């Protein structure tokens, strides 16, 4: 089984498991073995799925401002966890390919394997929710048809992205692409880098 076939299967299992309770506060119950790639992928998509629904909630026009602020901070924390896990996945790939010597003419890709996997995880969520809309009986036929057309595009994108990821991994393994990883340097959560936070600290 290709890597992306495994990833897509795991992502959809995570999405289905989340929607059993459909609760952003539900605790993850990861069914995969410790240290397995499937366990990491499941955890990654669970974060994405919870955040997807947090983003829905915060867009409620009638939401209490205090609740919205708390949700925004929860989303920020979720984004940090998401980034950390993407970097962890890249570390997994680095270990997998540590004995590969890139060819002298090896190219460098614009994104690492894990950030491409991140896009695949989000795409799984788009496909799941667009499929719900395309089949929602309470919606108009026009709405369902429009959503089906969008779903068709998303499924084509899934095939293209999956092919690209599998090709990238093969190119790294064959030495045709050099894998380089740069840690994400997010600044907004860092009290020493976000001017709003460090200026506030200086005023105390």
TrEMBL record:
Read off the Pfam families from this record.
DUF4254
Q: Which domain of life is it from?
A: Bacteria
Show the InterPro entries listed in the entry.
DUF4254 (IPR025350)
What this protein is called in its record is DUF4254 domain-containing protein
- Give the organism the record lists: Chryseobacterium pennae
């Amino acid at each position: 089984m290709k890597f992306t076939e495994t990833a897509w299967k795991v992502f959809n299992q995570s999405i289905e498991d989340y929607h059993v309770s459909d609760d952003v506060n539900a605790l993850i119950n990861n069914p995969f073995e410790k240290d397995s790639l499937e366990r990491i992928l499941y955890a990654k998509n669970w974060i994405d799925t919870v955040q997807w629904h947090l983003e829905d909630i915060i867009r409620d026009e009638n939401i209490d401002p205090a609740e919205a602020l708390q949700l925004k901070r929860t989303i920020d924390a979720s984004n940090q966890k998401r980034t950390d896990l993407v970097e962890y996945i890249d570390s997994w790939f680095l270990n997998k390919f540590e004995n590969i010597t890139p060819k002298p003419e090896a190219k460098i890709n614009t994104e690492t394997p894990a950030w491409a996997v991140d896009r695949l995880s989000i795409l799984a969520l788009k496909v799941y929710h667009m499929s719900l809309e395309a089949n929602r009986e309470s919606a108009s036929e026009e709405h369902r048809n429009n959503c089906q057309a969008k779903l068709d595009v998303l499924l084509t994108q899934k095939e293209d992205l999956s092919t690209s990821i599998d090709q990238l991994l093969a190119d790294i393994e064959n030495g045709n692409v050099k894998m380089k990883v740069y840690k994400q340097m997010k600044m907004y959560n860092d009290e020493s880098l976000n001017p709003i936070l460090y200026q506030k600290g200086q005023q105390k």
